[in-house]
Structure formats: structure tokens, C-alpha cells
Amino acid sequence: MPVERLPQPCGIPPAGAVPAPAGHPHGDLDRAGRAAVARATAGVSPQAVIDAWSDWATHLARSPGRQLELAELAQSSALRLLGHAVGAAGGGAAPAPFEPKPYDHRFVHPAWRMPPFSLWQQGFLAVQDWWDHATDRLRGLRTHDADRMRFQARQTLDLVAPSNFPWLNPEIIEATLESGGRNLVEGAGHFSQDLLHTLTQARRPAPEGYRIGTDLACTPGKVVYRNHILELIQYEPRTGSVHAEPVLIVPAWIMKYYILDLSPENSLVRYLVEQGFTVFVISWCNPTAAQAELSLDDYRKDGVMAAIDAINAIVPGARIHANGYCLGGTILAIAAATMARDGDARLASATLMAAQVDFVEAGELLLFLDESQVAFLEDLMWAQGYLDRPQMARAFAAIRAEDLIYSRAVQRYFLGKQDLPTDIGVWNADTTRMPARMHSEYLRGLFLENRLTAGRFAVEGRVIALKDIAVPLFVVGTEQDHIAPWRSVYKLALFTDCDLTFVLTKGGHNGGILSEPGHEARHYRIGHRPKDALY
Prior knowledge:
two-stranded antiparallel sheet
């Protein structure tokens, strides 16, 4: 059943527009121009791209040894391809000198092993292998530029992969012949629908069987508190005896609240209420341009802390088990450190799931973050008042372009297949925005400057330290997380002295967290560090 809503809307009092930067008044003209370019480039800074190419090309030009190595590799690859072509000329499958990477599923159709398709596949894999070596780190090349060059080369190759072209892909040819072209007609219909949705930004209706409040987010709950930044939802326990200490779940502000209450079988909220816990979940409001001045500290003060105050009013005197997911875990860690500094003992424990506090090794998202790129995004948000979820989703999709962009396009537009709905897919399409000031402070203060673990993150004018946290910590990382890599998540143990339990589970950023107990294809490893133990 749906969450019970209070009658009045969740509005945020209007705030002033994002202020123009100090300096010459013509600076607004510069920002407006960069914002227009940012819209055209999906938020990617052309200067950042040029800088990476220039740095790589300059160092390669000064490395004759590497040039000879790459020339020898090209010659060797050409000879191996020639040998494959000669073997394939006799008919049938020939030994393949190059193999797709383990995660690459574009060439699973058996016909890719047979000529002529094997020639196109092997040629592509040979070029891909050459570029992997060419963009490997050069002495003196900045690590960030090397990583970005490798990423840009991969993006270009993913675009021109033979699997993307209907006249080169045997699976598309086979489907077209068998259906008399019906797959292409249906694919054209899918393309028209997607184009219309992109142009109008209209919200797609939820698929049958995946209705929010009926099939998803169906644990009974009610809104018990609301302010300008959140709604607090309470879920009553379903047992005769009730735990005295409630649970507060803090999702990321880019997530809708029901990420941990998707389907009944993988709902953490349902599991907790069935164990006798009173559960509270923050539902962040979806800001508009009028809320551009909301800050990161507003999300701590009027978000996490306001929720704790509201829970204390409902369950007086009870200490709270707080649970933060992704960015929600980061803001929870900031709140917990601030509470420890100020002597606020209302937390009983803190759980951080796929959440980072140190951003030196923050995964492939760092490919999109440097001074030029952040300034570019700031100008885009200055013009809009926020960063829209589709704009951010493009960055996540680009990280896995072969799966999330091109393979999906092949399946949907050339093979005419409908996307199979999933609970997490429906949730992922239920988008939110991020206010300009808050997102700028997050990118600069945490990602670029890493202030939280450098002893330079101030709350209300005073620095906080994670080592002040005294409550037990339960930290979860996932093996294949490319957004919050588990090694980065684990670093919390380096910056705290309290009792800490770390769980490493199989899966990615969402799947590894949402897996229900007893999942046959999942496993986990667990370790415990007592309070004040050595690292």
C-alpha cells in the first residue's frame, strides 16, 4: 500500500538565485556561454578532453621507445589477423587470436566465430588491444590524464564496434531474415517513443506489475514530519514485542526514498519491521531552481539532524540506529562526526552502505572531475539552478557504455526487443535533481579537495574529525562497485578508532546492497575490528 501523505504539498521556501561570481559583471556572459556549451556536450568540458589528449600526445612524442613498442605491437597484431583470415578462408571457424574481455557480452552470438563476422570481430578486438597498450601510463604522464585518455579511447571504440551496425551484426541479420524485417519496424517504434520522451521529458508510466505504492514501495508507512527539505516516513513494527531503539534510514539525495523498499522480497524496510524495529526513512524533496541556494550543510542540519529531532519527539529518550546508503552514508558520517564533536549522544550505531568518506580512490567518476570539469558543471547549474538527474545519468551510462548505451540500443532498436522491467530499473527512472550550491560544495569539498579526511571540513565554523565518532560502525562495500569502490569504502577504518565491522559482498553498487538474505548467487565476507585496535 502507498505511503500515507499529509494533505499540504512539500514546498521549499523560495531562495535567491545563485549569485554571480565576484569580479567584472561581464563574467555572467562567460558563464552563460559555458553553460550553453555544457548543454550541447552533455556536461563534458571540452577543455578537459583536450588537456588529456595533449598531455598524452606530448609524452608519447617524447617516448621513442614506446613508439617502437606500439609499432611492433601493430605489426604483430596485423600478422595474427592475417593468419586468422587465411584460416577462415577455408571455411568454418578459425582459431581466434584475440578474445573479448570477460565483461564484454557483445560477441556472444555463435556466428561471431564464423567468417566473415569473425574477421570484423577480430579486427575490432585487435584495435582495442592496441589502444589499451597505447593509453597505458607513460613516464611523466599525469595519472588522471592517463585514465581519462584510456576512457576516451574506450568511448570511441565502443561507438564504432561492429556489433552496433545492423549490416555487420549476425544476430541482427538473422533476426531480420527470420521475421521479415519486423524487428526493424518494432525497433523504429521504440526509437520514436524514446525520442519523444527525450524531447518532452515526460515521465514514463510504470510498467504493469511495477506500480509505485502497489507493487513497489508497498510497506505501509506514514509521513510524520515535513520541512522544506524532507519528509520523514515512519513504518510500524509488525511484531508483538518492539525494539526500544528505532532505525533511521538516510538514502542519497539523488535517490528516491524507496530504494530500500523495492519489492517485498528485497525490502530492507519490510525485513526490519518484521524483526520488531520502528523504522524511519528520509524522503528528500526534489528541488527546483528556486532552491538553488540549498547547501550541503542544509542537508545535514535540516535533513539528518531534523529527522533525529523528529524521531526523538516520537520516541523520547531512545537512541537511534542510523543507516546511510551511498551519499546518504557520507552525510550521515558528517552528521555523526559533528554530533561526536558537540557531545550529542543520540546515536546508538551507524551503518554506512556503499558510502565513501575519502575520495582519493573514488572510482571511475573521478574521470569526470577536475577543476575544469567542475567549473563547467557549476556554470551549467548556475544557469539552471540545479543538476538534473538525466544529466548526471549520462556520466554513469558512459562508464559502462558498451552495456548501458550501445548494447541496449542494439536490443531495442535493431532487434525490436522491449526492455524487461525490473524493480530497480523502475526506481532508477524515477529521477531527482540536486541543487546547484549543494552539488558544487559536494564536488569541490569532498571530491576535489577531500576535506573530510584531511581535517579541513568545517561544520558551523568548526572542523570535524571522523576519529571522534565513538558509536559502533557497520560498513558494507560491494566487490564490483564502480561508483563507491570497496577499497575506498573500507578506508573509513583508517580514519576511525571505534568498533567497526566491515562486510564485503558480491555485486555492484545497488545489486550488492539489495540482495535478499540467502540469495544463491551471492556471497559475503565479514571482518571485525574492536574499539582502539590497530589498523
